[in-house]
Amino acid sequence: MSALTATKPRGDRRRLGTDRRHNLTGWGFLLPAAVLIVLISFVPMIQALILSLQTGRGTRLDWADPLWYNYQRLLGDEIFKQTLGNTFIYLLIQVPIMLLIALALANLLNSPRLRGRAFWRTAIFLPCAMSLVAYSLVFRTMFATDGFVNDFLGAFGVEPVNWLGDPTTARAVIILGLLWRWTGFNMIFFLAGLQNIDRSTIEAARMDGANSLQVFWRVTVPQLRPIILLTAIMSTNGTLQLFDESWALTQGGPAHASMTMSHYLYEISFQRNPNFGYGAAVSYVILILVAVLAFIQLRIGDERD
Amino acid sequence: MQNNAFQKNVINYPDLFSEATDAADFSEFPQSVVDYSTVDGVNYGVPFDSGTAIGAYRTDVLAEAGYTIDDFTDITWDDFVTKAKDVLAKTGKPLLSGQAGSSDTIMMMLQSAGASLFDADGNPTIADNKALEASIDTYVDLVNAGVFTEVNSWDEYIGTFVNGSVAGTINGVWISGSLQTATDQAGNWAVTNLPKLDGVSGATNFSANGGSSWAISSNADVDLASDFLKSTFAGSTELYDTILPSSGAVANWIPAGDSDVYAQPVDFFGGQAVYADVVTFGASVPSNNTGVYYYEARDAVSTAITKIISGTDMASALDEAQSAVEFAMG
């Protein structure tokens, strides 16, 4: 008895020692990456938070009075409200359309009967390997008043449209650009997700007499739920931080009608009299919006419990 | 450093600049240009690249409509609109173009009358600004009459005259670099001064857009740097004679205009000695107060113009612009 009780704890102790050693090795491998993430990501985030509580031009910053002055100021900023509205227009129109198209394309390309699948996959994915600025410039040229699109429409007798000069069409061009650039990117995620769906579930549904639309909505989509959630969060995050298209395609014009929040943030910090404190406050509002929307999406999307 | 941003940068980052008082004889530069880099009476910059505004027109197109370049010299904007409409009717070509939502043209009109968007104390004067209202009226007239084509980007703007669909332009003299890329139009261009605003006190035919000045940083060997600038950009015709043909950089330094290189006829401009002319124009440009919040005010005015052209009443659009700038300054 005594021998047993004496050996058991010793064995436990030894096992704990190995566990701890494994643990430490694990942390050792994690440490360099963790330190880097803290240094180049979390530290600047905290610095930005502190900055957002300061006010002043250029390098001459003082604590704001009251501390939340910059945030209070945002409420009265007409341009900020407009850019917030613009960003949500992009979000609400572009993200659902993009995810639906990506889902449909992924489903098509997953069909074993389709010829040249590798080619189509690459072709649709390729736009997101393009430089953001390069594609924005191409879109700007295409939608110029004497550009390709007007030439093409002109062949059918359509009067030239000032695409980038009108608030509605300028936003539409940005949305088109985003669709072109990002649909393929999301499609790849859906394609990967589709590989994990057991074909027997689909075959079973077919046997039960479901048509392909029913199979898609009732069998495929529910099983893709985690991937849809992932892409929705990524797209929301990306759209809220949208900068390049607003900057390179329309310069935010006409009259701030297509400017995004991040573009305005850039203007505040670098183009106008540098007000870094106020700029940091705008960036924190973007952060909070991303966090809140991601949280809501997680709550709606995750029905495991 | 870009002239329009000079005051803003000196005031926001005072630690980065050294006084440039000893780096030049500032009386040898146009007062309006020296003023860009003068803050509280202290010189912080030596003017270099000229932003003197020119009116450049296609003489062949003017001739087709029965005009010469002299008909567009020393005129007012009212004359200009009348004549430009005639040119448009007879040749189908507008005389001007520019980027929609850019206020470059308006800002040149304003400065031609020595007016600005700020008063001497730096308070915005966008609402109830007679010179600004006259400038916007003129601009809207130009656009509505079809003699000013609005495009959406800088490359489209350059394209309008390079591909010959527009027969002239008004901008800083640096635009001549872009004009001369249209080699097929060589010999058909001439340069003159700007139309002046009607009924605005202090209106002239001269203005500027852009241009840049040298600054001496605070960590520099200030004496050495001052001496360098004084014996080069503020004292060497030889330097300006070398860089003019090779890079088209036009001097602000008035004595540079007296040299032979500046007096040489330029074939592209039909044998006109444009560079000497431009240095002379530069001396007559009225000073204006860019102010620290120049870019905020310019953006607000751009937004106002976009709204006015799409039908908003001018007074309310400018009131909005005024409060936008006041907000940005708050």
UniProtKB/TrEMBL annotation, chain A:
Keywords: Cell membrane, Membrane, Transmembrane, Transmembrane helix, Transport. The chain crosses the membrane at residues 24-50, 88-106, 118-138, 172-194, 276-296. The keyword Cell membrane applies. It is a multi-pass membrane protein. It is found in: Cell membrane. Residues 84-297 form the ABC transmembrane type-1 domain. Its main location: membrane. It comes from the Bacteria. Belongs to the binding-protein-dependent transport system permease family. This is Lactose ABC transporter permease. It comes from Homoserinibacter gongjuensis. The gene is lacF.
Automatic annotation (TrEMBL), chain B:
Pfam families: SBP_bac_1 (PF01547). It comes from the Bacteria. This is ABC transporter substrate-binding protein. It comes from Homoserinibacter gongjuensis.
